[in-house]
Write a structure and sequence with these properties.
Helix content is 44%, strand content 22%. It is an alpha+beta fold. It has 2 domains: 7-142 and 233-237, Jelly Rolls, CATH 2.60.120.10; 147-227, Arc Repressor Mutant, subunit A, CATH 1.10.10. Keywords: DNA-binding, Transcription, Transcription regulation. Residues 146-212 form the HTH crp-type domain. One of its GO terms (molecular function) is DNA-binding transcription factor activity.
């Protein structure tokens, strides 16, 4: 018998004070997030925010020619749809499920009402948003200054932090989107890490064999992002 999903497996939901938790609980809707599912498109009006528990969602910016590039990932540490409660209602990015799993969603109206209360949830969400902005900024720096090898290590580590275990299931297409390169480039970079004994890579399945080695091979960007999440968010949200 499969245990039902638990909203508290999302660290933001787990950090809610008791009064807010009891107010939100009846409004949270469990959802399955399938690989490649688009939660919202660029410019679309958001109807819900999403709190992944076992899924990972990739935030992609799509160019006019259709070429996508990842700007951030969201998993069990956070929420998808910050522009909704920040007042923008929509965003130029796309939210696409990078790793299939479960999560919960909350209607836009409920989220905005909670944010407007200016209570503890407001403070929590603002600190989370600052951490997310750090990840987006550091991704831009990494893509400009560091090798594809470094970028792949950073992306794999960020994804690992949001999953239980050392197995990642990502299509070659999604990996290419993450790094903003052609699929052949992804394969070449992944095979380098495999030759070094850090991962095992086969048809979109990645098993991390040596996490410490992966961290050593990564650039400074992963550590910068992790420190900022740990600094800004409560201990129960630490990755």
């Amino acid at each position: 018998m499969i245990d039902p999903p638990n909203p508290r497996d999302n660290h933001l939901l787990a950090a809610l004070p008791e009064a807010e938790w009891l107010r939100w609980l009846p409004e949270l809707e469990a959802v399955e997030m399938s690989l490649g599912q688009v939660l919202y498109e660029s410019g679309s009006r958001m109807s819900h925010v999403y709190f992944p528990t076992t899924a990972i969602v990739s935030m992609l910016y799509v160019m006019e020619n259709g070429a996508p590039a990842e700007i951030a990932v969201v998993g069990n540490e956070g929420v998808v749809g910050v522009s909704l409660f920040m007042g923008g209602e929509s965003t130029p990015s796309r939210a696409e499920v990078q790793s299939a799993g479960l999560g919960f969603r909350l209607r836009a109206r409920i989220m905005k009402e909670e944010f407007d209360r200016a209570g503890p949830v407001l403070n929590l969400l603002l600190r989370y948003t600052q951490a997310l902005i750090t990840q987006i900024s550091q991704t831009a720096v990494c893509n400009r200054h560091h090798s594809l090898d470094n970028q792949l290590c950073r992306s794999l580590l960020l994804s690992l932090d949001r999953l239980q275990g050392d197995e990642l299931v990502m299509t070659q297409k999604l990996l290419a989107n993450m790094l903003g390169v052609r699929r052949e480039g992804v394969t070449e970079a992944a095979l380098k890490l495999q030759s070094a004994g850090l991962i095992r890579y086969a048809r979109g399945h990645i098993s991390v064999l040596d996490r410490l080695g992966l961290e050593a091979r990564s650039c400074e960007c992963y550590a910068v992002v992790k420190r900022e999440y740990d600094r800004l968010l409560p201990n129960e949200l630490a990755m």
